[in-house]
Amino acid sequence: MNHLTPDRPQSGLLIAFKELQPAAVGDAAPQLDLQLFVTELTTPSVWLRSRWTLLLEAIAANAVDAAALKSALEKACERHPDDLSTRILATQLALLTKDEPAAKSLVSQLVRHVEEHPLEPLSKSTITATMQHRASQPRLALWLIARAAWAVTELKADAEKLATAALAAATQQSDAKYAEAITTERAELTKAKE
Fold it and tell me: Distance between CA 2 and CA 102 in Å, rounded?
């Protein structure tokens, strides 16, 4: 029995991943926009969020949908091994469904990706710096994984590495709100663990 129907918002996401094709501007471009934003939930806290999070939480709550999305994400990751956005969603799903073996493997893959593809220091050339802003932007979402992985003892060291990578990407953005959000949340997480 197919649980995916057009009236369910989860269906759109699952279909989108099954039909994911190389980006028009080249394989280096993210396959999808994680729609990151910074919001102030309570003063003075600021939070980095993705518009995909609520949808992923709804999908994770349904075993059939979660399995279908996991399969679609695995195929997308195979087709686009260097696409960070797809790997981040796969990792988020694994963390949300508490699939510890998959979460550990995917978090390790993200850490390896970051280590193998270091960010270059920002150029003084405006044109090059603008390209670097865009190139580093997908890495901001590593904070979503770092924040979730922080609660898993076995993933704490990798969470720290991903947090550092996300903050490095945030400092390369022209808008300081991303760095502020990550720095604020990181400090709150660290304080809560003490």
Answer: 25
